[in-house]
Fold this protein.
Amino acid sequence: MAKEVVPRTIVASIRNQRQVQPDLDPLGFAASKLWNIARWTCDRIWNETGLIPEDSDLKSYLKSHERYADLHSQSSQRVLEELAEAFKGWYTKRRNGGQKANPPAYRKHNNDHPRSTITFKGAGFKVDTKYGRIRLSKGRNLKEYWSDFILCDIQTRPDIDLDDVKSVQQVRAVWNDSKDEWELHLVCNIEVDAPDTPGGKTVGVDLGINNFAALAYEDGEAELYPLNCLKQDDYYFSKRIARCDESSSEQATRLNAKKSNRRTHYFHVLSKHIVQRCVEEDVGTIAIGDLGGIREDEDSEVKDWGKHGNLDLHSWAFDRFTNLLEYKANVEGISVDRVSERGTSKSCSCCVRERKSNRVERGLYVCDECDMVANADVNGAENIRQKVSPSLTRGGRDRSNGWLAQPSTYLFDSESGCFAPREQVLS
């Protein structure tokens, strides 16, 4: 089996926690203080100019501030970059119709600063994989003398060999609330065994709002994954959060975090399930629609999908899901190709006829040229698949009464935490 170098994030526990926590705590508090100073600066600039400063402006403006030197210079720069990214994300959500989106908040819990994540880049850390140690740099203000640093003894999972690590790009010190201790996340390149490709077949994946994913396999099978469970979560948690005294209250924060965790769990389980199905079906290539421009028209102007449509798109985490799918598929030797979705919802997957009126309802596609009848999402998935692997039967075979029209439906069972065909879940 061949070897390949892939990016990974390794989570490591700190064995000498008692020795290093007194040094890591001040760095976490300092990161929160710097964030709050930069947040206040953004507020002031916004009020005076109506513009949100870029991270380069914040770095230049705050470089001489006393709190900037509490951390290593690269760590301070990363704090300001994160704030700028948070503002950019908030502005994008508002621009795309998410009127309930809030700008990044100050990092405070009552009058206390929380322990923020500290990111150490190239010059701010040194890794000794042989002895399992990482040396982290302090800021100038927090050093007792010029060579002062934090030396962490780390321990990873038994299945991870640090000798396979080829290079480490950055180290993040993260406070784990559940364990009440610090842990280190190593963003690195690691050498792993390259898995053999399960097969040479292809599958098309169409992402949507009603059915989160529709799959069309090369050998003539189709599957739907409805979004019912997440919609139920949205309804349930929205009602619970609305009963809270304030949207920023501790109870509302916990509910939002729980809702987010459940959504993340759904994406992980779905991506894992799809990859497992691809392995079973000897699929070597997944073609998935690239929805990067879904919120814009041909002139790069923001589309108005209506009140509910804009909210759905605002919470539509297609890029996040695709990243998870790519990661899990690559582990199994399956490649993921992002292809343009332009025209896939309007074109007939049998005769190539393109007409918007053929999509008579949200879930039904009827071609007025070849009389093909299909589930609209499956038809889109098959068009996406054929952009990577054109079908030999395209344009000359009626498949309307088979897999295009009657796909299998997989539902998420919250009790077992996995997907199963509809009849198994309801039994």
Summary: Residues 3-193 form one domain. The chain has two domains: 3-193, 201-426.
